[in-house]
Specification:
Elements (H helix, E strand, L loop, with lengths): L8 H10 L7 H13 L2 H17 L1 E2 L6 E2 L13 E8 L2 H10 L4 E5 L17 H9 L5 E5 L4 H17 L4 E4 L15 H9 L2 E2 L1
Parallel strand pairs: 3-4, 3-5, 5-6
Antiparallel strand pairs: 1-2, 6-7
The structure holds zinc ion (ZN).
The site of zinc ion has 8 residues, from loops.
Length: 204
């Protein structure tokens, strides 16, 4: 920040942290910081407490690795969901988008990222152990990849294809149809495109 050094210490500290948030540059971070100062004291304390509670009250669901207040989460605990279909997503917010489409009645697993050997993202840093466990339980008949169409998604998809071929050859592997623009992430795809992609998913 150009004039960041002139900010009083406590404000500077908050603005520097805010500037790390997605979509917030130094200028908007300063605007947010000043807005927080104008808020009534209780309201800004309340916000601070809620941020602390984010980590304290949320956990990762033991089955799907999604964010939840309880484990297993509501989705995994719902007997109406079809356990034979497992949809693999990169991040938890993709589950929200897919659920909003209302098309999918199976279950999910959040991988936590995509393989990227150049950046040091190896299988061990993602939820592959959880995926294996889940597949080994024997209920899943179809694994649907909803990983997007980036280079990392392709790398991850071929890794999973090999994993299935070696250890779970009976499980059908599909992925969302490629109506999805190249280079895009599932969470940014509009609802209709996603709906179509799921409906016309392809064997992998
Ligand atoms: Zn869950």
């Amino acid at each position: 920040m150009a004039d960041g050094d002139r900010l009083p210490g406590p404000l500077k500290a908050v603005v520097e942290e805010l500037a790390r948030l997605p979509g917030l540059g130094p200028k908007s971070a300063l605007r947010v910081g000043l807005t927080l100062l104008k808020w009534p004291r209780e309201r800004s304390s309340d916000l601070g407490r809620k941020i602390v509670e984010l980590r304290e009250k949320l956990c990762l669901c033991e089955r799907c690795a999604g964010l939840s207040e309880a484990s297993p989460c509501d989705l995994c605990d719902d007997p109406r969901r079809d356990p034979t279909q497992l949809c693999l997503v990169t991040e938890w917010d993709s589950v929200l988008v897919l659920e909003e489409s209302g098309q999918f009645k199976g279950t999910y697993l959040v991988l936590g990222g995509l393989l990227n050997p150049l950046d040091g993202v190896q299988p061990a840093s993602l939820e592959f152990a959880r995926l294996r466990d889940r597949l080994a339980q024997g209920q899943v008949q179809e694994l649907i990849l909803a990983l997007g169409s980036t280079l990392e998604a392709e790398t991850t998809a071929s890794y999973i294809k090999n994993l299935l071929a070696a250890d779970f050859p009976h499980i059908i592997l599909t992925r969302l149809a490629q109506g999805i623009p190249l280079g895009s992430e599932v969470k940014y795809i509009d609802r209709e495109t996603l709906k179509q992609s799921l409906k016309y998913r392809q064997n992998l």
